[in-house]
Amino acid sequence: xxxxxxxxxxxxxxxxxxxxxxxxxxxxxxxxxxxxxxxxxxxxxxxxxxxxxxxxxxxxxxxxxxxxxxxxxxxxxxxxxxxxxxxxxxxxxxxxxxxxxxxxxxxxxxxxxxxxxxxxxxxxxxxxxxxxxxxxxxxxxxxxxxxxxxxxxxxxxxxxxxxxxxxxxxxxxxxxxxxxxxxxxxxxxxxxxxxxxxxxxxxxxxxxxxxxxxxxxxxxxxxxxxxxxxxxxxxxxxxxxxxxxxxxxxxxxxxxxxxxxxxxxxxxxxxxxxxxxxxxxxxxxxxxxxxxxxxxxxxxxxxxxxxxxxxxxxxxxxxxxxxxxxxxxxxxxxxxxxxxxxxxxxxxxxxxxxxxxxxxxxxxxxxxxxxxxxxxxxxxxxxxxxxxxxxxxxxxxxxxxxxxxxxxxxxxxxxxxxxxxx
Length: 422
Fold this sequence. Notes:
Blueprint: E1 4-9, E2 15-16, E3 31-35, H1 37-43, H2 46-50, E4 80-82, H3 84-90, E5 94-99, H4 110-123, E6 128-132, H5 136-148, E7 151-157, H6 162-169, E8 174-178, H7 182-196, E9 199-200, H8 206-211, H9 214-223, E10 231-235, H10 241-254, E11 264-270, H11 275-282, H12 307-317, E12 321-324, H13 326-340, H14 346-360, E13 369-374, H15 399-409, H16 413-421
Parallel strand pairs: 5-13, 6-7, 6-9, 7-8, 10-11, 10-13, 11-12
Antiparallel strand pairs: 1-2, 1-3, 4-5
């Protein structure tokens, strides 16, 4: 049973039917999905959700499909990890990692939004799906399209990491690399969507696609015992996930699944691509586009489509945001790896670095619950840290050679420091 009433313009309120539409004809504002929350409240419960498979579709009453899920049956329900070692470094009491770096099948949060978008594309009768992507979305669209037996084209900016290029090409879609940055790719894809009438998950299917991001927040609440964290830090690129997590938290209260929907949400951006943070700190609603220059390619979007709604969600919650330099991002990746054994991509390193800043600034209290949303996997972006990790020790295959190495490695740090000083 579907509880979707239709689409509505987020700006002027104009109503639209359930069709592959994304822009209001009256004011050119973005469209969003509208639900019958009273009926959802009567048909959903914690017990019903708990009885379902551990995937994102356990919250299907709050997702915009009409029939059965067509893909994503193993996507979602990623771990919420108590990060005590990282908490000790930060000097905080209660810290969690929502780890979408292990999301099935392509190891990023994008498997959530793509599961919903491709299911909806099949409901609308499309046989070709596509996207504009900085890498993770292309991987996910290619994988889910292969599973569903759909034709697929993915468009990426030239110069992406090999892990993300190969991570799309292996599924045998048509991979098209565009000379330019993501914003150039996105503009072209809008024109292609109009001409060829394909299902672009983040263009003409964007209202439905974005709804999948709510499941990241739904799971956090369920995994915390149907409670919200007091603080949650989320990376911002195009701006889809942060406002949808906030919306999802409020929806849980509206349909009776949680009692308290008080939380603060924070944006994390790379300093070399931080138009949302610039606007936040300037106290304006105007997002001034920038030309991205950062190692964090997955969040290197200079003109975020939903930037305004990120600002709105942050301010409504009483949260804030910060940016991190490339050096701080790398340190964030390494810190997460050595304390919690999680290898994240630069977007996750950005979130770790920004969380530490916000705690040091006193914006996030040290004695309240904190969640960091880890949205992607580091094995896709090896280039970012390849020159920042220790090289292997090379020795002959003899025990004496290892004994000699071990003796050096086992020296007390103070002795090594003295030796270094001469």
